[in-house]
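I am writing to request your help with a piece of structural work I have in hand. Thank you for your consideration; the sequence and its tokens are set out here:
=====
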Amino acid sequence: MVIICCDKWILSLGGSGSNSKGATIWMPKTAVLLRSKHLMAITGLIRELENASAGQRSFDAAIGLLLGWTRKVEHLKTDGGGEAARKVLWIAPLSDEPGNVPHFSTSIEAALLFARTISPNHVGGVSWDEDGRGTAIIEGGPYCVAASPALALCIAALKAKILKEGEES
């Protein structure tokens, strides 16, 4: 594949970035750069999950954002001379209603929801050993190992997302 860059466009000739016949594709440079940042964010999250000793709400928030949850901050007025308080609300995907981001990194049920959202028509598996470490796989992806089954399943889902996005581009 040959890639040619100019100020606003990227030209791909043949290879994996082309259509099925190897034709030329022009893509807006900003779209390519945003996609690169998106993939870098996912790979960074995978690395954090692989190195984590346990799930964390910050991991859940990052996964929630990938699934379409939005974060809304309300600034509440206070009586007197105190500082304004902040209230953080999470808005569920396809909704205007606030909700709680699922505990993807600590709950096997929530991790399974995440995996099925990313890869709805694929099979997978998750297992654990006597120390509680987990291993997971989705379809033909890699085996993913982590400190817990929920973390391993989240990693497998994120890697499936990267593979899926690579096939679509």
Summary: The first strand starts at residue 2 and ends at 5. Helices lie at 29-51, 57-66, 108-118, 149-168. The radius of gyration is 20 Å.
